[in-house]
Amino acid sequence: MHRWVRIIIGLLCFCGLSAQAAEITVQVNIPECKMRVNYDDHLLYEAPVGIGRSDSQTPIGNFMIINKVIDPTWYPEGREPILPGPNNPIGKYWLGLSKKGYGLHGNINSSSIGNPVSSGCVRMDNEDVEILFYLVDIGTKVEIVYQTLFLMEDENGPKLGLIPDIYQYGSNSISAFWNLVKDKHLKQQIFVPYLMHLIEEEEAGIYSIPLKVTVYYGCQPYYNLAFKLDSIIYLDPRGIPELIEEESKLREFLKDYPDKYVSYEDFQQNLSRERMLYLVEDVLYIQNSRPHLQNIIGRE
């Protein structure tokens, strides 16, 4: 038995639990290429995995482990069986699932881990599958999911976690993300146009969620022109035609500016000197004089 398995089981016993009594479950997230072992919603262990190719996809659903085999023989469809040994592509450990023909197993090509390369099984690093083999029992529940969007939070605010939609299920959509947001107040704050842009780009990563900033130009409010990412404000000055018409320097700057949204700093630097900008909480005021701004704030 691997020494890390002894440590994990020993910790469970130290807490007054046993591996058999604990509700241990396994979850695999296909596009993330990640396997997690949980105990009552607490993460015990996680590891990268290889999953099925787009033409031989790993099945989604709720299954259970129905057998565990050391030194398994592989029975590829239409070919001769491959006996245990260094040439067996499923490695030394096999954990069969209740879906016939599918399981979690080792490998003979470590570079395949973390990629969609298998015929549908969940392929694991040999050390990781050994830990899993001794940590779970027959009957353990295995949930295989397909999630590409995540809602997270850190000290700087809410974050969007995004993983490419490798099977092209259409899971990276604004509606899919909207279902993750349970906080009604947060929903009202999100600047949807730029969030849609982030999701449609499908670049894997963790992104700050854009939050609305209301823009006042004169006495006119604009609700869909500006947003804040962390502490930086971006806005679309083209959405205020009167301002563009009045500001020749800004007009020239925007001719060669490729993006829709301009940072607050670039916007400020390309305004005439008599133009004043004031940020009050999540409201940006674009004015010609301080008294006029005070009159507006007084009416708020």
Structure description:
The protein contains nine helices and 18 strands. It has 300 residues and is an alpha+beta fold. It has three domains: 3-145, Beta Barrel (L,D-transpeptidase catalytic domain-like); 149-208, no CATH class; 211-299, no CATH class. The chain has an eight-stranded mixed barrel with strand order 1-2-3-8-6-5-4-9. It has a six-stranded mixed beta sheet with strand order 16-15-14-13-18-17. It has a three-stranded antiparallel beta sheet with strand order 10-11-12, with helices on one face. Helix 1 packs parallel to helix 2 (126-135). The model is unreliable at 290-300 (pLDDT under 50).
Output the keywords.
alpha+beta, 18 strands, L,D-transpeptidase catalytic domain-like, six-stranded mixed β-sheet, elongated
Number of domains: 3
Fourth CATH level, the homologous superfamily of the largest domain: L,D-transpeptidase catalytic domain-like
Q: Given the structure, what is the number of helices?
A: 9
Structural class: alpha+beta
Strand order, sheet with most strands: 1-2-3-8-6-5-4-9
Give the CATH level 1 class of the largest domain: Mainly Beta
Radius of gyration: 27 Å
* H/E element order: HEEEEEEEEHEEEHHHEEEEHHEHEEH
Strand coverage percent:
25-35%
What's the architecture of the largest domain, going by CATH? Beta Barrel
Question: What is the straight-line distance between the termini?
Answer: 69 Å
Low-pLDDT segments:
290-300
Write down the CATH topology of the largest domain.
Answer: L,D-transpeptidase catalytic domain-like
Number of strands: 18
| Helical content class | 25-40%
Largest sheet data: 8 strands, mixed, barrel
Give the rounded overall mean pLDDT. 88
